[in-house]
Amino acid sequence: MGVKKVILAQPRGFCAGVEMAVATVERALAKYGPPLYVFHEIVHNRYVVQDFVRRGVTFVQSVEEVPAGAKLIFSAHGVSPAVWEQGRRRQLQIIIDATCPLVEKVHREVRKFATQGYWIILVGHPEHDEIVGTSGEAPERIQIVADIEKARRVSVPDPERVAVLTQTTLSVDDTREIIEVLSQRFPKMITPPKEDICYATQNRQDAVKELAREVDLVLVIGSSNSENSNQLCRVARAKGVPAYLINDFHEIDPMWLEGVEQVGITSGASVPDRLVQETADFFGRRGAEITNIGFIEENVHFALPSEVSNPS
Q: How much is the pTM?
């Protein structure tokens, strides 16, 4: 193997919302014990989910799958009011909300604009857990736009009263062209606040842009259902650097490394850093120098839900 140097991107891995959500499940297990139920994957990472499953956590796609009286946690991606109501009707013992505060902020904005009579265009992927939950706040007033083509075709009853919001895990770069198309079609529309974009998504994409200047290949560690992990691959490829999404170092194809001397490694916002370190060690054992490039220091932390803030 000709890889001489491996550069680890900074920042990478867990964001504050993921840290909070994972810690919520950890604390709930310690405080209440299994069985514990989580609505949707707590975060989109195979290893995090599998570890919790081994310890007595069951991930469900419907509240109806949860036995009456059981303990339920809502994932970081947020849920609709209808799901909350289903949980109450089933008289679930404890409902803990681990929704990322950035996602909850967009939920509040949907409720505000809907109350004010605006028609809401929600930029994001229709099947993503976050969009499903957010759109459930006012389904009769929301249109989901996933790409430029849909932005060119979307229609609303009153083009003079349009508000645009976005999936938090998209970056400013991801949404720029879509927002521009919508702005041309709806000149009076209210655009999403910059702070609605997840700081971690933007920071990790900016780091990959810098990383791509230094390396011949980028490896992104993350699960295939992680939107922000997939976006990191796209960012690197847009800079002309081959990029591959892998769950861990076992999935590295030696063919990718032919003629490659410098490899960059990053990870999605729901990826434990041990997977990055194991991948770095894979190259280190083969003689590669391991270095870090730091671009941005993140000091964001979110409080745990009150139900688990006291571990005793």
A: 0.90
